[in-house]
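Worked example 2:
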Amino acid sequence: MPVMRDDLGGGAIGLRRRFIRPLSSWKLEIPGRQELQEPILGLLQYAQGDTPFWFDGAGFGEETTPILFGIGDGSKTDFNLPHRHVFIASLVIYNNGSVYSGWTPLSMSSDGATCDAIRYDSGLGIGYHATAKYRRRIKCIVKVEDKITRQRIFRSSINSENIHNLSISLEEFLT
């Protein structure tokens, strides 16, 4: 990917990576026809590693087993969720393994569809384990250290629909 150059100082190379602490990363392999991969490649060339975009996680942005986010002390009512941009409609809260419905979302995004924290209607009981499962949006950037790779793979002479392959790496970061 190209680098940014400063017009002042004889074209000194500027830093490309503004987000330096990734939380997680994904390597995506996208087989298919070349003309169907071009829009994806266009987005990635536009982003070039420092333009964030939203990724649905391709299944990795979903917590399918309840994960721990708090242990009750009898008085605390506000809890941060382990991830940001959690879809409120998908959020299921459990107290000691039983579904609990007495909560409201906090720190909602401007669209009102996601949140980062919840508030219990009353304090979580002493020693109770609060867990949740949910889907979330993931803010990503293209990992430019792993080059975007386009290749042709001849897997079968019968099906020529999947001879092209696009390989990219994405990183999740905090905002």
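The chain has a mean pLDDT of 79. The CA atoms of residues 140 and 172 lie 5 Å apart.
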